[in-house]
Design a protein that fits this description.
two-stranded antiparallel sheet; TIM Barrel; eight-stranded parallel beta barrel; alpha/beta; 2 domains; binds flavin mononucleotide; 16 helices
Length: 359
């Protein structure tokens, strides 16, 4: 029997002295989106040129990713795109049950047609890009330009929602001004238009990751809507992940660059996987194999060099390592470089080299 003189105070004490749930427990709490259960709440963010099928094949060795997203695919191209030749609209059948295809476009009807093909191919869901702020995209009325035209953005969500039964997701940013209010209003409109979940990257559109994201704005977006909100931006360590979950109340986290640099991070944070030196070595060679398997040589080398920038950021003196790894113009040279540089695995940094991450 309890000998506490004040039963209420004791109840409070007992509750607060219970161990806080671990990050893995929090990330694996069940979540449903449009009746579909997710394996967990840690996602691989859409990343053009990085999160392609070859990369995802390597990442799948470790598992642990709740949902993976393709890089953005042109909605105009998707209805007739050939997966056998497309650098982005390409997948392995076994990953479709947790793969979302992200599309960009300016016209709601184009987006609806693309979504129909995405559903017919068996993807888990479709994601609408309303966050990309590079000028070739924005000048065509796509990506973050939709945040300047909320009425068209909503029509787009409504058309896509009406065209398919699979979950319809939207990824967006703070917008074109630093204040969060327009993004909060935008989130409400997206929900009303039929979006099933949102990924929010709290940066203004012209900022390509040079300044830190405004995590506090994720909280405002989360509070404004009933659908799940996934926070994104500069989550690189388990501590970052806990901090964003705690301070914003968001439903999960979408990992970008760290998921590329450390494809095992999903298994590490959700299931306790512990990487070793061998993990670092094997992953690079697995990537070399996968990139050659899925691409013609001219594309393989471009994608390999792009990837290695992020991979090299894992190591102290990563910048110099990067230069040595990418010297040469053939995949044979890339393999020789990797064999030489990883004869002994270079020293790993706890946090990847941030300067390389912003290149
Ligand atoms: C090389 C690269 C390509 C990207 N491509 C896309 C894209 O196709 N669609 C998209 O919505 N975001 C894209 N992003 C943005 C990421 O999804 C993410 O929002 C951003 O990297 C911030 O998250 P992080 O700090 O976890 O990396 C890209 C980012 C990078 C670095």
């Amino acid at each position: 029997m309890s000998n506490c003189p004040d039963p209420i105070a004791c109840t409070v004490q007992n509750v607060s002295s219970q161990a806080a749930p671990s990050l893995a427990e929090r990330l694996t709490r069940p979540l449903n989106i449009r009746g579909k259960t997710l394996a967990n709440r840690l996602w691989l963010a859409p990343m053009a040129g990085l999160g392609h099928v070859a990369f995802r094949e390597v990442a799948a060795r470790f598992g642990g990713c709740g949902l993976a997203f393709t890089g953005m695919c042109s909605a105009r191209a998707v209805p007739t795109e050939k997966p056998s030749v497309s650098p982005v609209f390409s997948w392995r059948p076994e990953e479709l049950s947790s793969l979302v295809c992200q599309i960009f476009g300016a016209d709601p009807d184009d987006m609806a047609r693309a979504a129909e093909r995405i559903q017919a191919e068996g993807f888990w869901g479709v994601d609408i890009n309303m966050g990309c702020s590079v000028s070739p995209i924005v000048l065509r009325g796509c990506g973050a330009d939709l945040m300047r035209d909320p009425e068209r953005a909503c029509r787009m969500v409504e058309r896509v929602r009406a065209a398919v039964d699979i979950p319809v997701l939207v990824k967006f940013r703070t917008g074109w001004q630093p204040e969060p209010e327009p993004a909060v209003a935008f989130a409400r409109m997206l929900e009303e238009a039929g979006a099933d979940a949102l990924t929010f990257h709290p940066r203004v559109a012209p900022d390509r990751r040079s300044r830190p994201p405004r995590t506090d704005h994720i909280r405002l977006v989360k509070k404004a809507v009933g659908v799940p909100v996934f926070g994104n931006g500069n989550v690189f360590t388990p501590e970052d992940c806990v901090r964003v979950l705690d301070s914003t109340g968001c439903d999960g986290i979408s990992l970008g660059r760290i998921g590329i640099a450390r494809p095992w991070v999903f298994a590490e944070w959700t299931g306790g996987f512990v990487p070793t030196e061998e993990t670092y070595r094997e992953t690079l060679f697995a990537f070399l194999d996968a990139i050659e398997k899925w691409n013609i040589p001219s594309r393989a080398i471009k994608l390999y060099k792009k990837y290695v920038l992020y991979y090299a950021a894992n190591f102290t003196y990563g910048n110099r390592l990067f230069g040595r790894l990418i010297a040469g113009e053939t995949m044979e040279r890339m393999r020789e470089n990797a064999e030489r540089e990883f004869a002994q695995v270079p020293q790993v940094s706890v946090r990847p080299n941030m300067l390389m991450f912003t290149m």
